[in-house]
Amino acid sequence: MVQRRDPMSILLELTRQLASTSELDPCMQAVTDAAMALMTCDHCSIRIFDDNAEQLLAAARSGSGTTFKAVNFRVGEGVVGWVAAENRAVRIDDTLQDERFKNVGNQGFRIRSLLAAPLSTGARVIGVLSATSPTPGAFSEVDELYAQMLANIAVPVIERFRLELLALTDPVTLALNHRALAIRLEEELERAKRYGVALSIMGLELFGLEQLCSAQGQEACDETLRSIAKRLQQSIRRADVLLRRSSAEFLVLMPHTHRGQAQIAAERLAQELRELLAAAEQAAPLELCLCTLLATAEDTPATLEARCVALMSAAREAGRRGILCEPEG
Prior knowledge:
This protein is α+β, with helices and mostly antiparallel strands. Helix content is 45%, strand content 22%. Helix 9 (301-317) links the parallel strand 10 and strand 11. Helix 7 crosses helix 8 (259-279). The longest helix is centred in the middle third of the chain and has 27 residues, at 141-167.
């Protein structure tokens, strides 16, 4: 017989992990791992609302089925969606007898018992913690208390990371803002130097935003910036980092990218953005220019940003509305 660990030691270890971890995903994973140790469950997950608070997206999973594609739920959809809508915990002894349960097909595990608790700050729900078992009646009132306790532990952690992210995020485009620039530059430079890989930067500047704002108002200007940021985010790689440096300037940090590769990427993005701007109904036409440069072993975050700004200024003064690549040497 396997002896279960003392619940207090599990919770103490969890709080230590959460206090010493600087990223959200490992924190949420620690919570679902703790749930597996505390409760008689076969699978546990945490889902957090997307930016529009419409869909619950999987943030962490433990137990069976973690190699299968995660299932997301909308508010009111399935038991998880019901918990999010009602801001109430639920314990279901037999999912076959509960009309709220939604069978979503092959998840890599069977569900006959289900326990779910809202992650909430007062009346506002930010996510749901759920645990399942293939055995009917697997969960007890004690398990329900553990689930709510873990949900309560997770909420301050999620809120802390959310506030930190908001401080580093541009509210209009949702790209990282100028406060995040020095942080990400330092991280990417350190990584490039440590592993001996290339790091390129692409700068993008829009011309005509002031005229657009005067002709159609601030909202039209903001909507244009949002559409450009969205297209950039869709087009760049997962490893690339998009930042809004100023009102009309964006930067893309491109790890593992040499000078020639950066130029090809800039040419492709320039074409996509020009097509996007041409299709938009605007009273004032917008133009853009892009530049690319390669980081050197001597660069610091400050010198790298300064080089990029200087290159953008050179393009602006030359009246360039194309792509300016910093020459070698």
